[in-house]
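Dear Dr. H.,

I hope your travels went smoothly. While you were away I took the liberty of generating a structure for the chain from your last submission, since the lab meeting agenda had it listed for discussion. I wanted you to have the full record in hand beforehand rather than looking at slides cold. The sequence, exactly as received, is reproduced here:
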Amino acid sequence: MTETRRRKHDRGAPPGRRRGVSRRDSTGATPVSRGVWPLMLPAIIVTGALVLMPVLYTGWLALSDRRPNGENAGFVGTSNFSQMFDDPLFWNSVRVTLFLLVVCLTVETLLGLALGYLLSIDVPGRRIFQGLMLIPAITASVAVALVWLLIYDPTLGAANQILDAVGIDPVVWLGDPDIAPWSIAIVDIWQWTPLMALIIAAGIRALPSEPFEAAGIDGASNWKKARHVALPLLMPVISVAVLLRTVDLVRFFDTVYIMTQGGPVNSTNTLNVYGYRSAFIDQEASYAAALQLSLLLLVVAIAGVFTWWRRRQIVEY
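The corresponding predicted structure, in token form, is as follows:
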């Protein structure tokens, strides 16, 4: 009897006030309970402080003149940014950063696709092999750089011994301005291609089988299935992997600094390394702050472009 009255009461009440039915906005989404915000507020404040305070301090530092003795000569406006745009070392660091970005990202994506397809095949020992492939990515970049310093050693390194075994003259891997950027790119490709492959392999295994079956009924070959079915479906996954690697490559620092410190002749002097050297070696904190702000804007711009591209891919496919 009580249950019958409750049902009659619910049928007569407005939709937003029925028992067990939450109110929704015009889009159909349930609003967050007001009681949640007091619990989230401390985390929001701490996160905002950790993000905003360094950015605001860097902006204030870039607009002032911080002397090597720690004193601040006062507000100088945009003079540090004007100096930056007139600095040939700044443009060289941008060129080196973009070179490493394009070379490493292209090779890692292509090799990641190939290795990802192989890893998606169900063969005995696949899980063990996947775990072994993660070793370069989870190893500290400093340790990776030190190991590759030994590999690139001109006299005792394994790289020149391999070249000598096939009849090629030894190479000064990190001492030649023309070869050093490629040597750094090889290290990054070796370290991060397995991670790209594992992300893409997971995406391949999650693909639905119905589109491939329909394409097979229509007489599509394996190449056409890969080109017109698998690749479009994989684009959201590939875009996420590319975005992660792009942000890391733009901020490239630790491996470069351990191996070359930006040399020889600034041939591996990325924007992040140049900012570090300006702050802690040249003792130009305000100019280094302007350089790091330009790096931040570059990261935000690239991340925004990839986010827009990823959303477009999701809408199209």
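Two observations you may find useful: The radius of gyration is 27 Å. The chain has one domain: 87-316.

With kind regards,
E. W.
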